[in-house]
Structure formats: C-alpha cells, structure tokens
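INFO worker-7 received task bundle
INFO bundle size: 2
INFO processing item 0
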Amino acid sequence: MTATTSPPAGNSFLDAIEVGRAAIDEMSSVRHLHSISAKRLAAGMLSEAEIAAFVDHIYSDGYSARMADVVAAGRLTTARLSGELVGSAGWVVANDSGAVARLIGVFVSPLYARHGIGRVLVAAAEAQARQAGFVTFTVRAPLGASAFFEHLGYDIASHGVWPLTRETALPVAFLRKPDPTPRVVQFRPDAN
C-alpha cells in the first residue's frame, strides 16, 4: 500500500483507519475481502445461488485481471485497521468520451460495516477520479446496496441485471452522481 493518509478527524474509529492505494501483491487479500463482504453483507438481499455466483465471479480470471489493472493504474484505494485490510473502492473510465468515472470494488469487511469506512473510501475514489478530470460518477450496485450510494448523493438512473453466469444474474441499480459543477449556457443569437 502506498500514499497512506488518514480520514477526516472527529471519529476515533475512523481516525484509526489508514487509507491508501492498493499494491499488486495485495490482490489475494482484496479478492478475499470482496468475497467475505459479498457473502455476509448480501445475505438476506440475494439468494444463496446469487451469492455463490457472485463469489465465483470475484475469483474468476476476468475479475482478477480487471482488479489487477485497476491496482496497477493506482485506482484502487484501500482501508486498513492495524494493518488488516478492511475495505476498498476503486474507479475506471466508464465511457469512451472519458467524461464519466465508474466506481468499482466498493467493499467493506462485515466486521467493520456501518462505521463510515465505505463513505471514506467512496470519497477517496471520487477525489482521485476528480483529480484526473472526472466530475460525474456512476456505480452498478446490487439492489440492497443502492441506499448506501443514495446517501452519498447518487441517484438511481435505472434498474437492470448483471449477468454473472448463463443461469444467474444479479438484480442491480445503476446509479449516477449528478455533476456538482454548474453549467453555464451561453445564448448565441443566429446571424440571420
């Protein structure tokens, strides 16, 4: 992990969290965190078959390669408590125009859920993407997780499914965070 920082002061638990960029040699720990989080936090929101398919997806070659690319690009932020990996959040370019960043890999250990770690990680990922020139953010979240993103200013744009296997697809919400930058429209009368 590199570039370690501390979250905003004011919460003694969050003060103990170290936030920094993931290193490529942490990929096994990252996948483990994602799978444990998917298993425990999705219980009651997803069926056992959906959870199993999601965990299989997390350990797939495609997922591993994509996360490795995000880590190599320095776009996966992690949270650690006493050296233990407790959360992650990253981002990728969401479209060909390069105008929208999509959050990915937003997971928090079930032991530390609902203590503000996810909020800190999402803010860090957004700040990093904003520094790279992005001001609009999207995320694909399982339906049970969409309320978390709505609390962070995201609006549900649509609902759909995320096919994981031929037999299993997760119900998801596609969320978008409105561009906070006011747009100035200039009126240009026709030359006629």
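INFO item 0 finished
INFO processing item 1
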Amino acid sequence: MPSEIVLVNVSGDDQPGLMSMLTSSLAQFQVRILDVGQAVIHDQLNVGMLVQIMDSAQVSDVLHNLDACARTAGISARFSPISEADYAEWVGSHGKPRYIVTLLANGFTGEQMAAITGIIHRHELNIDSIRRLSGRVPLASVDGRERTSIEISLRGHLAVPEALKAELLDAADRLIFDFSVQEDTVYRRNRRLVAFDMDSTLINAEVIDELARMHGVGGQVVAITERAMRGEIAFQESFRERAALLKGLDESALKRLAETVALNEGARRLIRALKHFGYKTAIISGGFQYVGEQLQNSLGIDYVFANRLVIRNGVMTGEVEGAIVDADRKAELLKEIAQREGIALQQTIAVGDGANDLPMLSTAGLGVAYHAKPLVKETASHAISNFGLDSVLYLLGFSDRDIETALVE
C-alpha cells in the first residue's frame, strides 16, 4: 500500500487545546508523525508536523480534516508534499555535526543579525532553531537597550572552525556583541565544574598591585610586571620579586583589602545560580590564598588554590610558601579537581582574563576569556567582553527564567 509524506504548517493566534484538536484529527487515519516542532512568538503560534499518511487514498481526507480544524480555530494551514528522496536526504543529514552559537548584545539590530547569519551561510551551516534565552525586551528599557541573548542551533560540516570564529570575532568587534561557538555534544549539556581566575576576573582588582601601592612600592611592582609581559623574566621569578617588595607590610593591609575588594559585575549572581544547579566551583589563581579564602567564605566556593604569603608576627616577610601557581600549574589544578570529583575534563569550564590563564582555558571543555586582553580574547575559544560574569550562564544554555527561578528558591 503506497504512502505519502506531507509537511503540515499551521500558524495563527495561539490558543489552548489547538495541538490536541489537530492531532485528534490525525488519529482518525493511519498516520505516522515523523517530526514535530512548535514555536510561539508574541502569541503567534507556528507548528510544523512532518507526517506519513500510510494509505495514499486517504491523503485528501486527512488534509481536508486538518484544514477544517484550522479554519474552525481561525488559523491557517499549509500542506507541502515531500518526496521519499528528499526525506531520505533529510534523515541522512541527522548525522552531521551540530553546533551552538550563543549571542549576547544590548538588544540585537538587523545589521548584527544580518552579519551573523551571513557568516553562518558562508560556512555552509544550516540553522535548525533559534531560541531567546534572555527575558522579553521592554520598549521602555533604559536608552531603549537591554541585554539580550539568543541561542542558535546549527548543523553541518564546519571545514575550518578557526575561520568561523575569526569572522564572528571581527563582526563582534565592529558591531559590539559577544558570542560563543560550541560543539553540541552531551558534554556541553552536562557541565559540572566551573573554575575562575581571581584577580580581574572574579574580583575587580589586582591584589598584588593594590598591596604594593599601600606599601609605597607600586611603581617597582609595575616595572617587574612589564618585564614579565615582555618575556624578559619568567612568571615564577617575577612573582617572587614582586612578593619580596611587600616585606614589612602589616598583615592588616591584606585583611582590609580582602574584606573590601569588589566583585566583578554578575559574579555573585553567577555563583548563586551555579550552586543551585549543582555545579562545583573553584578559584585557581596566581594571586593570594588569603583573599581567595575570604571569597570562598563569602560566596560558598568549593575549592581555592592560590599563592600563600609567609606572615610572621603579623608582618609579611616577602616570601611565598610552596610552589607558585603559574600558568601550567593552573591547568594541572583544574585536572586534579576534576579527577577528585569524578568529572570529565569536557565537563569543565574555566574563566580568566590573562595570558597565564590560557593553558587552563584550553584544558577546560569550555574556556571563556572574560574582559580579556586582545591576545587572550583571540586565542581563547569563547569571550565575554561587554557584559557581566553571569553571562556565562547563557553559554551553558540557561535562560533568564531558569536563573530567576533558581535565585528565588
């Protein structure tokens, strides 16, 4: 008995019971539902159903009944025949790689979306779905602008991933938006550990610079930092030299700084949400353990690994206890925490701003450069440059509704 495949598209005012009515109409006949999708935008419903009508003699009756249902509900229905060859090609495309592009902007313009979708088209990727993660945008928002996040699901073979990122990065710098491109794998949907750099990432300060200014050696510390950035001195050596300049500084200065240091925008909201959703969190920093532990107590961070200043009789000796947490050590610590928690590296996230964070960012399943320097932004897989730390939640697929529900419970 020959069958026919038909694509059914229904659109109009959303109303309760509509899907029940349409599917009840189909239930009277020998029909298989091969695919189904639904979206509602501003109370306008769009439903798509790919159906196989098992007896071709029933095709006209099936479509007549669906059309009658749609008319009764005051909506429209369109029907498109699909050949078996086209259907077989569509089924075969199911095995193509999938990607998630997450976009973040102060309200999206037509120019931004045209640039983004044009780049996607040039790389021969198909858009499967588009989902808004942020809340609805009020017209009366400040200056008519409000943080908006959109998630685009893509399908296809990406020949040169670096080229896609480079084009999106150029457009993002020119048109002011942030983006992330991730492979849509089971690990992307099951991240379990988030590790943060501390200075200039989780907090809005470089602690060693602040302490140096308090001690009157700020210029000397900056000079050493610049030598390290030029590659004239290794990080470990530079850190010990800078710490040595703090010799004689009273411990109370470190305590005052730890108690008053400001979190970066969105940090507290991000940590609260991550804890609610069951994520493990860590600070892995080339800064100071004392400050990290204060943040641990305040925010409920699970792990803190940083450098320990030696303090005797309430005064800093200028020495550092144990191994220096440098770039390579950061990556190793991420691995150690993941192993201790039984978490695959693909399920980890790392967030940082400096070049010494790059090994950790590349080791993690998702490495995010946060308000980072150009080299780090270009090298890291993902970047947030215009918004707060809580934007990381969008990269995990959480919507504003998910987040707000978590924060009030």
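INFO item 1 finished
INFO post-check item 1: The first helix runs from residue 18 to 27.
INFO post-check item 1: The chain has three domains: 4-92, 96-184, 193-207+263-308+319-408.
INFO worker-7 idle
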